[in-house]
Write a structure and sequence with these properties.
Elements: H1 2-32, H2 39-61, H3 81-85, E1 90-92, E2 97-99, E3 103-106, E4 111-114, E5 118-120, E6 125-127, H4 132-159, H5 164-168, H6 175-208, H7 213-217, H8 228-236, H9 258-262
Antiparallel strand pairs: 1-2, 3-4, 5-6
Helix pairs in contact: 1-2, 1-4, 2-4, 4-6
Length: 264
């Protein structure tokens, strides 16, 4: 617990600082300078919504169970040999519990996780079946903030000199400060967009094709013959209209017990 707190507190503080700087850029050029005219206030409030949503989702994910299975529910003797040979059932000697092929043990969390995708350093927690949807939303809102920042900074570079409000309302903004803000904003946005876009596309692919990053790395292919829409419903919830907002949870994951596995 102490080790997890040692990781997640700095990670959350870094995320908070990035969001605050992003809000500062938007406030400076959209709200104060009205860089894009009548659209400026609308874009500012959209960015504010995305930024607050990202922070709330980050906080929520820190405490959400990713799909842990219960410990100490079985012994190695509970596993019939014929199921072991078929690789339908495995035994985790660290958790003392049974595992199906879609359950993986995370050495960092010291727990078995249903449909474990990866262990996220920023959350100090695994991404699994129960929190994957919210993790995708977190990436989406962060990407929205990053793309809006780079558009606003580009607009300030190209059109800032022709907007009277930028000169009238920001007399304290010297040449050196402008250069620093532009360079730092570009570097931060491009870095975040490159990293988050890659992770976001991987998560969408895994959700659409009912696989995980762990299974991709191990070369395992899902035996699920469901359609892409069915796979997305399993992760994001039954109603597609609600996929864009984090309000519907995926199907609950029950603990894996011997009787349930042997009857399958």
């Amino acid at each position: 617990m102490v080790r997890r707190a040692f990781i997640l507190i700095p990670a959350f503080c870094i995320h908070l600082c990035v969001i605050l700087y992003s809000l500062y850029i938007e406030y400076k050029f959209l709200y104060l300078c009205q860089l894009f005219g009548s659209l400026s206030n609308t874009l500012f409030y959209i960015h504010w919504f995305c930024a607050i949503s990202a922070l709330c989702l980050h906080s929520f994910l820190l405490f959400l169970d990713p799909g842990y299975t219960e410990k100490n529910t079985a012994t190695e003797k509970d596993v019939p040999d014929h199921l072991v040979h078929k690789e339908r059932i495995r035994f985790c000697d660290k958790c003392n519990s049974l595992k199906t092929p879609r359950i993986h043990h995370c050495s960092t969390c010291a727990r078995c996780v249903w449909r474990m995708d990866h262990h996220c350093v920023w959350l100090a927690r695994c991404v699994g079946h129960r929190n994957q949807k919210y993790f995708i939303h977190l990436l989406f809102y962060q990407l929205c903030c990053a793309y809006m920042d780079i558009v606003v900074v580009s607009g300030a570079v190209l059109f800032g000199g022709t907007v009277p409000e930028c000169q009238e309302r920001l007399p304290f903004d010297g040449y050196g400060t402008r250069i620093f803000n532009v360079c730092f904003s570009y570097a931060m946005c491009i870095g975040f967009i490159a990293f988050l876009s890659n992770l976001f596309l991987i998560q969408l692919y895994c959700a659409a094709y009912d696989t995980t990053y762990v299974e991709i790395m191990k070369g395992r292919k899902s035996s699920n013959k469901s359609t892409t829409m069915d796979n997305l419903r399993m992760v994001c919830g039954p109603l597609p209209l609600l996929w864009v907002i984090p309000c519907t949870a995926p199907q609950q994951v029950e603990s894996v017990r011997p009787a349930e596995l042997f009857s399958a």
